[in-house]
UniProtKB/TrEMBL annotation:
GO terms for biological process: sulfur compound metabolic process. Gene3D superfamilies: 2.60.40.650, Oxidoreductase, molybdopterin-binding domain (3.90.420.10). Its EC number is 1.8.2.1. It comes from Arcobacter arenosus. Residues 308-405 form the Moybdenum cofactor oxidoreductase dimerisation domain. Keywords: Metal-binding, Molybdenum, Oxidoreductase. The keyword Metal-binding applies. This is Sulfite dehydrogenase. Its cofactor is Mo-molybdopterin.
C-alpha cells in the first residue's frame, strides 16, 4: 500500500504527475521491453526457511478459543483489512461531504464484483434512509393502467438477476489536461460492478400497456435531491431494470434502498436511486437531455456520435500507484492485471502496451465475459530490475468501438496527426468533464514505483 493515503480525506492531487511526449520516452528508455513469456509464475523469494518465526511457531490465534460464531450477526471484514475502504477528497466534495462522492478501491478488487460495502457512492443530497413499509412506486403518464405499488407488490413481478457496472460519466474526468490523481482509486474509482436482482421494466409494461405516444420515461428519486432524469423509451424497452437486490442482499442505503433504476451501461446519473416515480411522456424533462451527444472511435478510425452510454474503457490495476513493483526481484515473472468495460456491449479484446501506446500486445481475457460488465484481463511479464515502462491498456468491444488516445478525444478524430497543436480549433477541442475514455498510462520507474502520466502525441 503506498503511503499517500493516510486518512479518508487526504488530498491526493498528483504532484508527481507529468505530461510526456512519446519522443521523451524513447530518448530515455530506448527500445521497448515487453517480454511475451509463457514461463511459470511464482513468488520466487518464498522458501521453507527455518528462521521464519511466522511458520515455525504456534500462532496466538490458535492457542485459545476464538470469538463466538454469533459475535457479528452481520459479518464484517477482517480488522487487518481496515485500509480497504471507499475514500473521498476535498477536491471532489466542494466542501460538502453530504453532496459527495466516495470512490471505490479498485486496486484492491478481485474478480468482477464489488462488495456492497465498497460500492462507489454518489449522492447529491446525502444518503436517504427509506422505510420499506412506507415505500411506494408510482408508475404513471402515458400508460393504459397507471399504478402505485408497495415493495411487496413490486417483488411479485418475475425477477431477473444480471451483473453490470454502474459508472459515473465523470469517471476519469479530472484527467483531461494532465493526470491529477496519482491513484487508481481516485482516477478510475467512480464506478463499481455488482450482481443486481429486480424486474425488467418491459415486463411491468406488458401489464400496464404503454401508449404509442410515450417516447420518454421520467424517473424521480425520493431523496433530498429529488433527482429527476429522462430516459428514451427504446432503452426502457431494451434492458432497463428496477432493482432491489445487490450481490445477494437488499440494496445498500448508499445505492438507493429499497429500489433504484438500473440502465445497464448508461451513465450512472440516470440510474435514479430511492426511486419513487416513473412517468411516461412524449417529451424529456430537459431539452438538454435530447441534445447531449458524445463521440466514440471505431477501429476503422471513424468516429460516431451517440449519447448516454459509457464508452469502452480499461485500466491496469496491478501494478498501479497503490500497487507498485518496488519489492520485485530481477527476473520475477509477474501477472499484470486489469479491468475493461463498455456500456455499449461486451469486451472482445484488450491490448497492453509497455511503451505508452506505440506498440501493443494482446492480453488474456479472464473469467466471465458479460455485456456491460467489468471484464478482467491479464498478461504475464518478466520483470527486469530497473526497467522503465509506460503501461497502457486499450480495450475493444463487440459494438465495434476502441479506446481513443487523449489527443483523438480532445482534438477530434478527423484531425491529421501533423495538424495536432497547430490549430487547436480545427478539432473539437473538447475538454469536458464527462465521457473521458481515452487510454491511460502508468509509468513504472527504475525503483518499481508507479506514477500516473499522460502521453501526448503532439
Ligand atoms: N435519487 C438519486 N439518484 C441518483 C443520485 C442521487 O444523488 N440521487 N446520484 C446519481 C449519480 S450522479 C450517479 S453516478 C449514480 C451513482 O450510483 P451509486 O451511488 O450507487 O454508485 O447514482 C445516480 N442516482
Ligand atoms: Mo454521477
Amino acid at each position: 500500500m503506498s503511503d499517500f493515503i493516510k486518512d479518508s480525506n487526504t488530498d491526493v492531487t498528483n504532484e508527481k504527475s507529468k505530461v510526456l511526449s512519446r519522443r521523451d520516452f524513447f530518448k530515455k528508455t530506448g527500445a521497448m521491453s515487453a517480454v511475451a513469456a509463457s514461463s511459470v509464475v511464482a513468488p520466487s523469494l518464498l522458501k521453507a526457511s527455518e528462521d521464519d518465526p511466522a511458520i515455525m511457531h504456534h500462532p496466538k490465534w490458535g492457542q485459545s478459543w476464538g470469538d463466538p460464531v454469533t459475535k457479528n450477526r452481520y459479518g464484517i471484514p477482517s480488522a487487518y483489512e481496515h485500509n480497504v475502504t471507499r475514500r473521498n477528497t476535498k477536491l471532489l466534495a466542494s466542501g460538502n461531504y453530504r453532496a459527495s462522492i466516495a470512490v471505490t478501491p479498485i486496486h484492491e478488487s478481485d474478480g468482477i464484483i464489488t462488495p456492497n460495502g465498497l460500492f462507489f457512492s454518489r449522492c447529491h443530497g446525502g444518503i436517504a434512509h427509506v422505510d420499506p413499509n412506507e415505500y411506494r412506486l408510482m408508475i404513471t403518464g402515458l400508460v393504459e393502467k397507471p399504478i402505485v405499488l408497495t415493495l411487496a407488490q413490486l417483488k411479485r413481478y418475475p425477477r431477473v438477476t444480471r451483473t453490470h457496472f454502474i459508472e459515473c460519466p465523470a469517471n476519469g474526468g479530472q484527467e483531461w489536461r494532465r493526470p491529477q490523481y496519482n491513484s487508481l482509486q481516485f482516477a478510475k474509482g467512480f464506478m463499481s460492478c455488482a450482481e443486481w436482482t429486480g424486474v425488467y421494466i418491459k415486463t411491468i409494461l406488458e401489464d400496464l400497456k404503454l401508449k404509442p405516444e410515450a417516447k420518454w420515461m421520467l424517473a424521480e428519486g425520493s431523496d433530498n435531491s429529488e433527482m429527476g432524469r429522462s430516459v428514451p423509451v427504446e432503452k426502457v424497452l431494451d434492458d432497463a431494470m428496477i432493482v432491489w437486490g445487490q450481490n445477494g442482499e437488499a440494496l445498500r442505503p448508499e445505492q438507493g434502498y429499497p429500489v433504484r433504476l438500473l440502465l445497464p451501461g448508461w451513465e450512472g446519473n440516470l440510474c435514479v436511486k430511492w426511486l419513487k416515480r416513473l412517468d411516461f411522456a412524449s417529451e424529456p424533462w430537459y431539452a438538454k437531455e435530447e441534445t447531449s451527444k458524445y463521440t466514440a472511435l471505431k477501429p476503422t478510425g471513424k468516429a460516431v456520435q451517440h449519447f448516454y452510454a459509457n464508452e469502452v474503457n480499461s485500466t491496469v490495476v496491478i501494478p498501479s500507484p497503490e500497487k507498485p513493483w518496488t519489492d520485485l526481484e530481477d527476473g520475477a515473472m509477474v501477472e499484470i492485471e486489469g479491468l475493461a468495460w463498455s456500456g455499449m456491449g461486451t469486451i472482445t479484446r484488450v491490448d497492453l502496451s509497455f511503451d505508452g501506446g506505440n506498440n501493443y500486445v494482446e492480453a488474456n481475457i479472464k473469467g466471465l465475459v458479460l455485456p456491460k460488465c467489468w471484464t478482467r484481463w491479464s498478461y504475464i511479464h518478466k520483470y527486469k530490475k530497473g526497467e522503465k515502462l509506460l503501461l497502457t491498456s486499450r480495450a475493444i468491444d463487440d459494438a465495434g468501438f476502441i479506446q481513443p488516445t487523449i489527443d483523438q478525444e480532445v482534438f477530434g478524430f478527423d484531425v491529421k496527426k501533423e495538424d495536432y497543436g497547430k490549430d487547436k480549433n480545427k478539432g473539437m477541442g473538447v475538454e469536458s468533464v464527462y465521457h473521458r475514455n481515452a487510454i491511460e498510462t502508468w509509468e513504472v520507474n527504475e525503483k518499481g514505483e508507479v506514477n500516473h502520466v499522460q502521453v501526448r502525441t503532439i
